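Sample intake sheet
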Amino acid sequence: MRNTHNRLGALLAALVAGTAVVCAQVPGAEVAYDNTTSPLGLYYGNANLYEFGDEITLEGFGDNTFVNLVFMEVAYTVPADFVPQPGVKVGQLHIYDLTGPVDPDPIPHPTPGAELRTFDFDIENMDSGAIVEIWDSVIVPRRFVWTVSIGGMTVADGFGLDLYDPPLVGDSGNDFWIKEPTGWRVMQIDNGNIPANFYARVLAIPEPSPLLLLVAGAACLWLARRRS
């Protein structure tokens, strides 16, 4: 029985090691959304007051309803004289699904619902096209909303999200989401004359199968017991 346990332990250890390598290299990751090639300008809005961002649809992965987002980047711009204050002038990148209440106006559409993940970042002075890069594993639906909120800043700081269009991979409508005190609202820029699509790129892999999740969970449990 002891030898059986040892063999099982060795197998799980190998699976954990293999999983770590896979996660590090992200094999099979595909570009599921790419809107990074055609700049249009900036959108400032009321960035110091409201959270705002884009609704995007990922491309590929057959009939999968959900995918595993492993990398995402978005871009912002601040003026050349912007003074960074790490830990004070900060941003958050939020990812939401679309399970919120249906808004009937102008046509029925779902609103952002559950917040799937939030990532913090310090706002740096890059003058043009500062990139926020996120390497993580987040299960997302093929269509989701990402937004940015900022803190410790005012309109005078000049924070803006970079506008790009059209996406080369994936899709995004001609509007964006803003989170006001009364709730979520869809907005356009210049009555829709300027596409309200922001710089973003997403890499993803297929959602892990239930069997893979079970094996990974067993491996984590085995490691936890071994270390205790």
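Comment: Residues 2-25 form the longest helix (24 residues). The chain has two helices and 15 strands.
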